[in-house]
Write a structure and sequence with these properties.
This protein is α+β, with helices and mostly antiparallel strands. Strand 9 and strand 10 form a beta hairpin. Helix 4 runs antiparallel to helix 5, helix 9 packs across helix 10 and helix 13 crosses helix 14. The protein contains 14 helices and 16 strands. 31% of the residues lie in helices and 18% in strands.
């Protein structure tokens, strides 16, 4: 490999399992909008003059990191052309202050352990949005995370009435499955798995399934059927079909392959398969117009609203036991009601997951009339809470997942493992924000561009080397001036063959607007 150095070709020192951070941040600073805002001396100077402590200021630390990566301050390089004249000695940046600031208060990203790059990417975008919103120097600018934002639309069709309902949601990553059963070389993989192994046989190269990105996208956007759906129009159980499509496109599209799944032994496992990311991808066939289409009828709740039952009474014995642990009586009552008086242990588990709730010490609020079918708010099952707690998930996350999947423990656990902490926290935050604003899913603000033509060009890859989800190593490849460059912590070099078929994350840039919009 030919080593490189120069502005935009500076490595990041590994501080101990920080390769996930290094890979993501190299990709971020390769994006024009990001580099323009945070490799900016004027912004850095203004933030420095306004900040009481620049060592803890996220925006200042971003500017500092950008200056290190995007200038030749730390490079030994021929100033004429870094790509054409590589040099043997390369300097690097040590992102210790940035790691400390962005990881502060987060149980995983503040630790020295290996973390998931996709989780960190989503956490970084959430963190960046909070930093920009609270910083007087950049808070008037458009949130930079919006360059990744796009809107999807979920369509549900009731088979009994043929009516449909729509709901929208915001995303910053397109996470797609790997349908191994649709591998192009499925028969070859099957033969290799059944081939008998004799003692002394020479080790053969493993035959990995080869799945096209088209198969992954088709599986993700394929309609699914609900067989036990209670129609709001008729009140009778029957079937319904759910499908999902894109309403808008982002300027920059991160695609993450679901390489990590929950195994039969309830532990995360990595799917070893080759999924080649193409240089150009076309998503135009997966876009639809927003809302009801011509000839469709909206599925509305025709059932009469029912009066809410009286507020459930907390078990006095449970309240007494929880209060004896030092919690307020109101907090103990809320906990008992939340777990349907299942027991003091379950109430304590729920309480530990809700200690930061602003209303935790307020008197329990009776359910609003007609707030749900039967008038009561759904609750997480006590058994499900106990099982997810035994897997290591705290109360609030376990409760959210169980409610999200109607107390299906297996689906809830699978989602918790695949979404990761950053994804879970983002989903909880989004749900709380919608609840506080009284939003229905149909009121989601559209983000992204509807006038992009849906074609994207590949410009970066993040790859995970290794078979274990909690170990291994991350590297990234970025296309610069038409040539691929590998960033392996502090090492930067030309790459003749980027690993497009085994990458974990791929970053695409929108190619152009629709011709009529140009």
């Amino acid at each position: 490999l030919e080593p490189l150095s120069g502005a935009g070709l500076i490595g990041l020192k590994n501080l101990g399992n920080t390769c996930y951070l290094a890979s993501v941040m190299q990709v971020m600073f390769s994006i024009h909008e990001f580099a323009r805002r945070y490799n900016n001396d004027e912004v850095a100077l203004q933030v420095r003059s306004m900040s009481q402590d620049v060592t803890a200021d996220g925006i200042f630390q971003l500017c500092k990191l950008g200056n290190g990566l995007l200038t030749d301050r730390y490079a030994i390089v021929d100033p004429q052309n870094a790509l054409e004249h590589p040099v043997p000695n390369v300097e690097w940046v040590e992102p210790r202050s940035f790691k400390h600031v962005i990881g502060s208060g987060h149980p995983e990203f503040s630790s020295a352990g290996q973390q998931d790059a996709a989780e960190f990417f989503q956490y970084f975008l959430d963190w960046l949005e909070r930093q920009e919103r609270s910083n007087i120097i950049v808070q008037t600018l458009k949130p930079l995370a919006d360059i990744f934002a796009f809107t999807t639309q979920r369509r549900l069709q009731c088979h009994q009435s043929n009516k449909v309902s729509y709901s929208k949601s915001l995303h910053n990553v397109l996470t797609i499955p790997i349908p191994v059963e649709l591998a192009d070389n499925a028969s070859e993989v099957d033969r290799a798995s059944k081939k008998p192994r004799m003692e002394g046989d020479q080790e053969e190269a493993e035959v990995l399934p080869k799945v096209s990105i088209e198969s992954c996208l088709q599986r993700f956007f394929a309609p699914s059927e609900l067989s036990d759906f209670t129609s709001p129009a008729t009140g009778i159980k029957g079937k319904a079909t759910i499908s999902q499509r894109l309403v808008t496109f982002p300027k920059y599209l991160p695609i993450v392959l679901s390489r990590y799944v929950l195994g039969e032994d309830w532990t995360p496992k990595k799917i070893l398969a080759e999924v080649p990311f193409p240089d150009v991808i076309d998503l135009s066939s997966f876009q639809v117009a927003e809302g009801l289409q011509e000839g469709e009828q909206e599925l509305e709740d025709a059932a009469p609203k029912q009066e809410a039952p009286a507020a459930p009474s907390p078990d006095e014995a449970i309240v007494a036991q929880v209060a004896a642990m030092g919690f307020s009586e109101n907090a103990a009552k809320r906990a008992a009601i939340a777990v349907s008086n299942a027991g003091s242990e379950q109430a304590m588990e729920w309480l530990f997951g809700h200690l930061e709730d602003a209303d935790i010490n307020d008197p329990p609020v009776p359910p609003a009339a007609g707030s749900a079918a039967g008038g009561s708010k759904p609750t997480a099952s006590a058994d499900g809470m106990a099982m997810l707690s035994a897997m290591g998930f705290d109360g609030s996350k376990a409760e959210f997942a169980l409610l999200k999947f109607s107390n299906n423990v297996e689906q809830a656990a699978d989602w918790l493992f695949s979404a990761g902490d950053a994804g879970i926290e983002a989903a909880i935050a989004e749900a709380k924000a919608a609840e506080q604003k009284g939003n229905s899913s149909g009121d989601v603000e559209l983000k992204g561009q509807a006038d992009f033509d849906g074609t994207y060009e590949l410009f970066a890859l993040v790859s995970h080397l290794g078979r274990n989800t909690s170990s291994g190593h991350y590297v990234c490849h970025i296309k610069k001036d038409g040539r691929w460059v590998i960033f392996n912590d502090r090492k930067v070099a030309l790459s003749s063959s980027p690993p497009k078929d085994v990458a974990y994350m791929a970053f695409y840039k929108a190619r152009q607007h629709r011709p009529e919009q140009a």
